[in-house]
């Protein structure tokens, strides 16, 4: 991580508060290298306690729901009006960076502090939400905390899903943190989308676009949906590497290579036509118990992750890939089976919030770039519930999910300024 550079933007009271909170989070959840804040674990609980202490010191009302999500509320003039939520998660991957997720909660606290210091009173409640269990690495089900808040988690998952490091169930870990999985399983819904006017998530960018474009702030245009294939397999026939001529081979690797090249050709075509799409073959491997340097490979297993802002594009690609698999397999004497997929649809970002954020950035003379989010975020859960949702990205070097995350405070300060300006208009009443 580069040394943080002091600027006039980082010397304001709200930024001094933010810098201290980032330092406390890094120190108290340190797990060299980086930080570890496991979902429904000690590090996540420490992080929730730290932001709650700051919220109370600023006069906010602090409460926790039965799923462990934390709400820090600045009362507005009309307490019955639909509320404005600002939120993100506080957990991290193992030995991760300090800013993924946490920056969004700290941004909310910093923006509210700036508005309080300016004598502003919101028309409705502004709620900063610290969300539980977003990182999929701990419990293999997406957006645990935000989905539980709306009663969306399958009741079976509480006992079926186990944490990757302990083997204990989600329900066990929740009870250890004072939560009530039984009430949730029975149908309790801590949040009603009808009571939420907007949900805003501030997050570090997890890719390199803002850094490569020299832009501190991103305005998210949409959150890509995905098709995930976890159990693809190509079945050919093992044979002697020297004794079998090419025309008699059923080579699973060469068939797989052609199949992956076809996927890249689809990607090239979609880019050329202006469609949003990315594809990753994250695993592609032969059976270590059977493969060998002198064997024609008979089995290949693979995964695919396809993402787009259009679910129609994703489903069309699936249809085309399965047709290509049949053609390539018939020609090469193998069977190519991508397997079943799981489908998380794209999340719609409210165009009015996009325009508001872009207008706020222009008014403040802060460079901002509109771009899609390739990674999933809790914001998607709110969008799927029909809540007006928006996101801001903060420039960040060295990617995410690693201890070298490198968000700089001056960039964070500019994102907070955009958020604060937008909140004045949303909550001006």
From TrEMBL:
Binds 2 Zn(2+) ions per subunit. GO terms for molecular function: hydrolase activity, acting on carbon-nitrogen (but not peptide) bonds, in linear amidines; metal ion binding. Zn(2+) 2 binds at residues 100, 135, 401. The keyword Electron transport does not apply. Its cofactor is Zn(2+). InterPro entries: Amidase_Cbmase, Bact_exopeptidase_dim_dom, Peptidase_M20. The keyword Hydrolase applies. Keywords: Hydrolase, Metal-binding, Zinc. It comes from the Bacteria. Zn(2+) 1 binds at residues 89, 100, 203. Belongs to the peptidase M20 family. NCBIfam families: hydantase. This is N-carbamoyl-L-amino-acid hydrolase.
């Amino acid at each position: 991580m580069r040394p943080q550079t002091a600027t006039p933007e980082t010397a304001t009271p709200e930024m001094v508060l933010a810098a201290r909170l980032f330092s406390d989070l890094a120190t108290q959840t340190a797990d060299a290298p980086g930080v570890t804040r496991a979902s429904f674990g000690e590090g996540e609980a420490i992080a929730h306690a730290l932001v709650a202490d700051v919220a109370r010191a600023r006069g906010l009302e602090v409460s926790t729901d039965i799923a462990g999500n934390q709400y820090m509320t600045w009362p507005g003039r009309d307490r019955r009006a639909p509320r404005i939520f600002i939120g993100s998660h506080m957990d991290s991957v193992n030995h991760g960076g300090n800013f993924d997720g946490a920056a969004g909660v700290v941004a909310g606290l910093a923006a509210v502090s700036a508005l309080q210091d300016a004598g502003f009173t919101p028309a409705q409640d502004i709620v900063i939400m610290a969300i539980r269990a977003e990182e999929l690495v701990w419990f293999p089900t997406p957006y645990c905390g935000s989905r539980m808040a709306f009663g969306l988690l399958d009741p079976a998952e509480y006992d079926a899903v186990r944490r990757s490091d302990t083997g204990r169930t989600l329900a066990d870990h929740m009870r250890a943190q004072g939560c009530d999985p039984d009430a949730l399983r029975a149908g309790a819904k801590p949040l009603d989308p009808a009571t939420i006017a907007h949900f805003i998530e501030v997050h570090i960018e997890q890719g390199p676009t803002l850094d490569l474009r020299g832009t501190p702030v991103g305005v998210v245009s949409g959150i890509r949906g995905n098709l995930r294939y976890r159990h693809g397999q190509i079945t050919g026939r093992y044979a002697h590497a020297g004794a079998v001529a090419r025309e008699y081979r059923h080579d699973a690797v060469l068939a797989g290579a052609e199949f992956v090249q076809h996927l890249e050709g689809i990607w090239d075509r979609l880019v050329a036509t202006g469609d949003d799409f990315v594809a990753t073959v994250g695993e592609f491997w032969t059976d270590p118990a059977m493969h060998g340097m002198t064997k024609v490979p008979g089995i290949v297993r693979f995964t695919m992750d396809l993402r787009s802002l259009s679910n129609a594009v994703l489903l069309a690609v699936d249809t085309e890939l399965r047709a290509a698999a049949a053609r390539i397999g018939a020609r090469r004497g193998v069977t190519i089976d991508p397997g079943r997929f799981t489908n998380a649809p794209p999340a719609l970002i409210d165009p009015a919030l996009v325009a508001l954020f872009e207008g706020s950035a222009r008014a403040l003379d802060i460079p901002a770039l509109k771009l899609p989010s390739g990674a999933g975020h809790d914001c998607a859960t709110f969008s799927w519930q029909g809540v007006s949702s928006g996101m801001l990205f903060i420039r960040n070097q060295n990617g995410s999910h690693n201890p070298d995350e490198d968000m700089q405070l001056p960039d964070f300060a500019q994102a907070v300024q955009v958020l604060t300006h937008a909140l004045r208009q949303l909550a001006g009443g």
